[in-house]
Amino acid sequence: MKKYAGVQLAQLAWVRIISMVCKYCGKVTKGKKYCQGHNPTSHGHKQTEETKEKIRLANIGKKLSDETRLKLSRLKMGKALSSWHRQRISESHLGLLVGKKNPNWKKNGSKRIDGGYVRIKVTECKWLREHRLVLEQHLGRILRPGETGHHINGDKADNRLENLMLFSSGVAHRLWHRRPERVKPEEIILDGRMV
Description:
Strand content: 15-25%
Number of helices: 6
Mean pLDDT: 81
Structural class: alpha+beta
Radius of gyration: 38 Å
């Protein structure tokens, strides 16, 4: 090979091939049309507003295939969302699952089991224990905060009046469980066995 000023010609040709100039900023690159910051295929490429608008208009009405949607969901899996993104998602879901639209919605009068107790929905957001409602209906008044109900047979779901007792306080109820003979008759408001 011929030498030109101490450098072989093949090396000069190689230098000419690999040194190109970025179309956007004019930086010398290593054989590429763009530098790292302006490469349209690299992550973080800044597109002009005109280009963004063209892409948006081209994608209107297009549906993604199931395969593409699966790939996108796998890419996003496990990644934390920014607070802005979370806010946007919550705003887009506002009103979608409220009231009757929610799959867990229960109408008034619906029943559910909570810790063994049957609860009945009385208003849009209030659930009461069924045994307290049975006692209130029988007495004709609302139970006072300290008054405590008791299931005689121990089954919390059995809310027949014959299976319920009402104590004036939680202390009397606990005493009934330990030493029933020490509970004073005036502390028992209602005994379902006597009804």
